[in-house]
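2024-03-11 09:14:02 INFO receiving multi-entity request
2024-03-11 09:14:02 INFO entity count = four
2024-03-11 09:14:03 INFO echoing inputs for audit
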Amino acid sequence: MPRPSSPILSPEIIGEAGLALSRAGEPFGVNAIARHLGVRPSSLYNHVGGMDGIVELMRARLLVAYPVELPRERWDDYVVTMLRAQREMYAEHPRLVPLLVGTTTSSPPVIDAYDDLATILATAGFPEGEILSIIAVLDAFAIGFGLDLAAPDDIWQPQEETRTLGRLLESSERGRARADLTFEIGISVLIDAFRMRLAATKKKGAQASAAAVDR
Amino acid sequence: MPRPSSPILSPEIIGEAGLALSRAGEPFGVNAIARHLGVRPSSLYNHVGGMDGIVELMRARLLVAYPVELPRERWDDYVVTMLRAQREMYAEHPRLVPLLVGTTTSSPPVIDAYDDLATILATAGFPEGEILSIIAVLDAFAIGFGLDLAAPDDIWQPQEETRTLGRLLESSERGRARADLTFEIGISVLIDAFRMRLAATKKKGAQASAAAVDR
DNA sequence: ACCTGAACACCGTTCAAGT
DNA sequence: ACCTGAACACCGTTCAAGT
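2024-03-11 09:21:47 INFO inference complete, emitting structure
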């Protein structure tokens, strides 16, 4: 059957299959996806432009698959909610992360999501010249914490005597509890610091306005 | 020439070749390394246990290749110096990062480095139950900013009108300058927040001691 | 002890052939 | 328009053969 009466493939089907395999911790390359869909690898090339195109499809579908209802009243609620969702997302797809970071994207849902965040931060009063950097900081955190959550329990296995590390490894929380503690510390640290930064910016702005009125 | 009079391979040579290829942005797999060393892929298996072993060798050599003189007087100087060095390290080996994160290690130089950090933080007065999480936060940070530094200039390419993102992309710094601004914001945010956290911990400790004396 | 050569089971990608 | 089958240039890994 060289050609079915109705197409059995589509970019959506391919992207979804890739995500399903990734979520299951299995390989999600061209061959693996084709096998999973009961089709030959070369068939995929009628719908997508190779592995890069598949990754881009997965990235876009990943965003719509995590339809967090983001609170728009306060920037800090927005950021915290977003970070929590992204952390889960990255943790569920750890092997996809390296393919996502550091690659250019122009897919509309992704651009829209970042445009939303940029707008919220600008409205909140963060200096425009810093906003892209703040977004990069948030991205770095989400990725880092997602990977931390996905990491195995025993990242370090000391063979010899240690001064501190071995003791801490024995006495500390493990697994999900440790990862969650890490995330809570990280997120409170981050939000506190950004709040301080915003307050300082506003104060400077107010001083500048007052000085202008004085003259 | 099936066997040379003196060995032409060793774990050190193999690890170093892998790092050199990675730093050059070239593939650094078993085949690529063998080609680079003028040897057959199967030869490597006399010295290392496959690709995983090579990655572990690269990890260990990466640490000794960045012999930062870490200031031990103040925990914050130590952390800042370490983060700067690690960021450069990750930025120079972006494709190695996904192979390093989330994998167990027991190689002594790596363990030693983390034991050092843990000891400094414990001595500084951070609560023992939080130190592993703080280290994870620092790791997440270094990785995130290293990848940010290695990322292409145009991560987003909006095709349609945006509310804020497009404007910021046009007006903001680019390339190295933008990445450095991101890092400086991130690092000041992080250190400030940890300082506050440490101060709060010490205050609580002092109150507890005072209360104990009262009784 | 250490490098080779052949073999195996994988990749991603191209393209003419079939309907 | 869309799936196939064969082909290509890659992977990582094993193992008997050679010195």
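2024-03-11 09:21:48 INFO post-check: Chain A has a mean pLDDT of 88.
2024-03-11 09:21:48 INFO post-check: Chain A touches chain B through 70 residues (CB under 8 Å).
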